[in-house]
Amino acid sequence: MPTTIKRIVSVLYRARTNKYEVQAVAEKNGLACVITLYYRNEKEARKLKKGDVIDENN
Known about the structure:
Helices cover 9% and strands 57% of the residues. By secondary structure, it is mostly beta strands. It has a 4-stranded antiparallel sheet with strand order 3-2-1-4. Strand 1 and strand 2 (19-28) form a beta hairpin.
């Protein structure tokens, strides 16, 4: 099932791993959950917004 972002909580840079960490409140199977996504590129990390759908293959 796809996961839909409801709200972006934070976008942080993790120097130790050299990645951007995005924490968001999402909805999966009709239930609210907190997800953490990691990106190498800051532009990719910051372009996430409310309503974006995250497929399980991403």
